[in-house]
Specification:
single chain, 726 residues, alpha+beta, Immunoglobulin-like, five-stranded mixed β-sheet, 8 helices, 28% strand, disordered N terminus, disordered C terminus
Length: 726
């Protein structure tokens, strides 16, 4: 039973296959075409297919040349008309391909060029009396490439640069060529070959080329820009892996410079001279030569002193030309110490050397020229203390100046350059200073207890160079005053005060003296000791002292308080103006009657400016003006503030709560800042009144003094005058 079942299934399958292929036909190698009995001109499935057609380019004909033939399965039943459309048929380029309307044969009419058009896509139509008999069939025609294009170099000549110190195998440029034939085929497979090296170098073959990539590399060492700066190479490019069509191009190789030559001094030994005691003087200019490329770091030169400059007296720098060195003095040279220097210089380049080279050196012999130098004192300042009345002819100082020019055997002479009181004399040969006049400690030429004398020393050289010596002579009394703790007035023994003329003092008592003095008793007591004069009770100096005290009070003691008060008052007045105007405009339609605090605020701002000016530089007149302005500000400000607060003018109706709140805030701010200005004015008036009361009076801090006598030889006495208040 099972065998019968499988046999029946096999026979059914065979019958089905026979029915599907019984009408299939094949035409000249084309795919089989299935035929069915369907209604005329209405086919639901395409029954004619043709594969891609490959046509070689550059075919020699004859033309038109048969390519293939298409056939409809309905051709045996009805008359079919064939038509070819598409680029190459009825579109540009037109007429390349044609088709026989009756037989369906396809022809090419001319040679094809793949480099122009490599593929054509056409449609073949089959019609019966203008109606479609078949679906259009797509015809793809591929143009097969032929090796008909010579490789072309992308440019010619090619330019490249390689350093003269390049090593073997160093790549520096590449050659490229293109082939219009089909890529990735032998027709476009290019190979390169170095055909000729037209410029000869140290070797016949200095370069090589990679046949595939076209990279040019050095093949040998020995490139020398100074011998040969350019090479011309002929490169051959061939397709078909080097066996096909060929072309040539030129490569120009420029040899770039490397620092393979050291600079050379024009002279290896040279002599020069320079005067002593001159810094920055140019001693010598050195020139070098270099075979490398000029104007590059390979020839720009720098110089180093390698020996002979232990003291650092010389320096060398590169000149503007970059190939010259300027030797100058960095320190003053001394002929008496070092009459000659021998310097060794070496020259190198800014760029490091590309290979080991020997550097060039130059030996410079510098001779120091002797100059006449002025004598000098050591030490340059001399202090001497002498008694108040030294005897005439007594020696004050014995000066000795040294002449550095030891080789000249010169003599030093001395002279007084400045002796304003003409108290001294000097021996021009020995430098001994003696007293020739009566010296007075109270002389106006005594400054800070010192009498200054300028002494000149010069040699007998015709140039007459001189040096200057300053001598301070300090006069000290034989019995210097002594100061003890407490408020005392120092006196000097033997001082007799003048008879007092002040009213209220007992002029018949010689041991008692009443003197009206200002607050600084210590300074005024010294004034009496050294100048034997009594300060006046009312002088121009005391007036200046009162002004100075006022200035000190306002510019130092209350400086910050007065400045801050003035600035705050100015700013508060400005804010008060703004808030008053806002309140008047919001609530009273900008009524002038409600802007009364504005006028007082402007006055407060002016008063603040006056306070700032007074703290900068105060005097009595400015203080009075300051007090007057602030008192006026207090009066006007308080009156206008009171009128503003008690004004009965009705405000217009405010529509929103925000407007009502804004009106109250503006009015409150105006009142608050006006009160602040009033308080600041009151504070400034109090500060001003306090300063004037303390330092404006001419009779403040008056002190009286009683004379206490003491014998000159009594060292146990008081030596002081006790202070008693008047």
């Amino acid at each position: 039973m099972e065998m019968m079942f499988f046999l029946c299934k096999f026979l059914a399958a065979a019958s089905l296959l026979h029915s599907c292929f019984k009408n299939t036909t094949v035409d000249s190698g084309r795919e089989p075409t299935e035929s069915k009995h369907v209604e005329p001109f209405r086919r639901k499935k395409r029954e004619w297919v043709i594969p891609d057609i490959n046509v070689p380019e550059n075919d020699s004909g004859p033309f038109p040349k048969f390519m293939t033939k298409i056939k409809s399965s309905s051709e045996e039943k009805v008359a079919i008309t064939y038509q070819l459309v598409g680029p190459g048929a009825d579109k540009a380029p037109e007429g390349v391909f044609t088709m026989d309307r009756r037989s369906g044969a396809l022809y090419v009419t001319r040679p094809l060029d793949r480099e122009k058009i490599s593929r054509y896509v056409l449609l073949a139509h089959a019609t019966v009396k203008g109606s479609k008999a078949e679906e259009p069939m797509k015809l793809v025609i591929n143009v097969v490439d032929q090796n008909d294009n010579v490789p072309e170099c992308t440019r010619t000549p090619f330019y490249g640069n390689v350093s003269e110190s390049a090593q073997v195998g160093e790549s520096f440029m590449s050659i490229t060529a293109e082939d219009k034939d089909a890529p990735n085929t032998d027709n476009a497979d290019i190979r390169y070959r170095l055909k000729t090296q037209k410029t000869h170098g140290p070797k016949d073959k200095m370069f090589s080329i990679n046949p595939v990539s076209g990279l040019i590399s050095t093949m040998a060492v020995g490139l020398d820009r100074e011998m040969q700066s350019k090479y011309e190479l002929i490169i051959e490019a061939a397709d078909m892996a080097g066996e096909g069509l060929r072309t040539t191009c030129t490569a120009i190789v420029s040899i770039t410079d490397s620092n393979d030559h050291a600079p050379r001094f024009t002279f290896t030994s040279v002599s020069a001279s320079t005067p002593e005691n001159e810094v920055g003087r140019e001693v010598l200019r050195l020139t070098v030569t270099d075979e490398d490329d000029l104007g590059t770091p390979n020839t720009n030169t720098k110089y180093t002193i390698v020996s002979g400059n232990q003291g650092g007296h010389f320096s060398v720098k590169t000149g503007p030309w970059k190939m010259e060195g300027m030797l100058t003095t960095a320190k003053a040279v001394d002929f008496e110490r070092d009459p000659m220097f021998t310097l060794l210089l070496v020259a190198t380049n800014d760029a490091p050397f590309s290979k080991s080279v020997s550097t060039s050196t130059c030996t410079i012999t510098v001779t120091v020229l002797d100059q006449n130098e002025p004598p000098f004192f050591k030490p340059p300042l001399i202090h001497r203390i002498i008694s108040e009345e030294p005897p005439l002819g007594s020696q004050v100082a014995d000066l000795r100046a040294k002449d550095p020019d030891t080789s000249r055997h010169q003599h030093v002479r001395y002279a007084l350059h400045s002796d304003p009181a003409r108290w001294l004399a000097i021996d021009k040969n020995t430098g001994s200073i003696t007293v020739k006049g009566n010296m007075d400690r109270e002389s106006p030429y005594i400054k800070d207890n010192k009498y200054t004398v300028l002494v000149l020393a010069y040699d007998n050289d015709p140039t007459n160079l001189t040096t200057e010596q300053t001598t301070y002579i300090l006069r000290v009394p034989s019995h210097p005053p002594t100061f003890l703790p407490g408020k005392w007035l120092a006196t000097s023994p033997g001082w007799t005060p003048p008879r007092p003329k002040s009213a209220g003092l007992n002029s018949s008592t010689p041991a008692t003296l009443g003197i009206v003095m200002s607050e600084n008793m210590f300074q005024e007591g010294l004034y009496q000791v050294y100048f034997k004069e009594r300060p006046q009770t009312r002088t121009a100096e005391q007036e200046d002292l009162h002004h100075a005290r006022i200035h000190r009070w306002f510019s130092s003691v209350v400086n910050t308080r007065l400045l801050v008060s003035g600035v705050v008052q100015f700013l508060s007045g400005a804010v008060c103006v703004l808030t008053t105007v806002c309140h008047s405009c919001v609530s009273y339609d900008c009524s002038v009657a409600m802007t009364m605090p504005v006028w007082s605020s402007l006055l407060f701002m002016a008063a603040g400016c006056v306070a700032i000016e007074v703290q900068r530089k105060a005097n009595k007149l400015k203080i009075i003006i300051l007090m007057g302005v602030h008192l006026l500000s207090l009066l006007v400000g308080f009156s206008l503030l009171l009128a503003y607060c008690l004004s009965s003018q009705q405000s217009h109706a405010l529509n929103t709560r925000k407007q009502l709140v804004g009106s109250y805030v503006a009015k409150g701010s105006a009142v608050a800042f006006t009160l602040l200005c009033l308080l600041l004015s009151l504070y400034i008036v109090l500060l001003s009144w306090r300063g004037l009361r303390r330092y404006g009076s001419a009779t403040v801090h008056v002190r009286g003094y009683d004379r206490v006598m003491q014998e000159p030889d009594d060292d146990r006495g008081p030596l002081m005058e006790r202070v008693d208040s008047v």
